């Protein structure tokens, strides 16, 4: 993808948050690299997708089941809350059974952090300034450093420190940046540099501005997310806008889509955001026209049946099904497998070549068969 400069737009009457900054499309921001249980984050590594379990952590079987399902969907890293003694006690067994690196999510309690590190988690999500005395901070950072376990500093617009909030009046990008750097500074004091930072907000524009600040002023790898994004419909849109905008500017090293839904659903959306920007390989990608009065086949029924029949297939194949003869032939020919339909029949395309005519009633079966026979390596070598 060619690079081009994108000016930072400020649509309000406020002064721009990042004056005169530009971002390069297609050029990743250079950062230090952190190792999360074998998954490299930053330093040019592929962008990883994370999720968080929704079970009670003390329910080891239920928690592991969610982790396994997320792994099947292509998740790279999974976060687990450690909010009580029972959760802390369960971490060692969860780590042992998990197919993915585990991040311990901890607030305020340094004992839970130490127990999670002892359980060999891959990362700890912890704000060092919130766990008490310097001695407690030293214990946690020293234990993490000894095992090569990184820390994610997670700042949220809804839980900024009182003095920072009083200083800025309300959550701003500068306030989020200042809070994050306060915790980074504590880590620096103890010689701990294996950190990842997030500066999340439910306000998409604020989240974008805050991440831009951290990206412009540091080389720390960034965990992108819109916090408390909401239900699948609204949360997907907000996350796609916020995370997608930053990724398109080369900002971001690992992502988590927050939805009021199952963890694997968060992974589905996260992977699709990456695929839409050519930052991850595709699985089955279904494309269909939006439909209009020119539609001459039951495209709604065809697509619903295809989604059901192709669910779980992990081939990188692009399928386009178009319901009229105006744009259909051109768009169908650009896909790996395409159908341009009209008046009860469809023309089957394979890699831009017309293969044959098929009846409307045969379209789903024909596409499923084409997908089964599709060989990505062979197709790419032609």
Care to describe what's here?
The chain has 382 residues and is an alpha/beta fold. It folds into two domains: 5-276, Dihydropteroate synthase-like (TIM Barrel, Alpha-Beta Barrel), CATH 3.20.20; 285-381, Sulfite Reductase Hemoprotein, domain 1. The chain is 40% helix and 19% strand. The protein has helices at 60-72, 85-97, 110-118, 134-147, 162-168, 173-189, 204-217, 232-248, 263-276, 299-310, 328-333, 363-373, 376-381, and strands at residues 5-7, 22-24, 34-36, 39-41, 48-52, 77-81, 102-105, 123-125, 151-156, 195-200, 223-224, 254-256, 285-288, 318-322, 337-342, 345-350, 353-359. The strands form four sheets. It has an eight-stranded parallel β-sheet. Strands 13-14-15-16-17 form a five-stranded mixed β-sheet. A two-stranded antiparallel sheet has the order 1-2. Helix 6 crosses helix 7. The longest helix has 17 residues, at 173-189. The model is unreliable at 1-23 and 378-382 (pLDDT under 50).
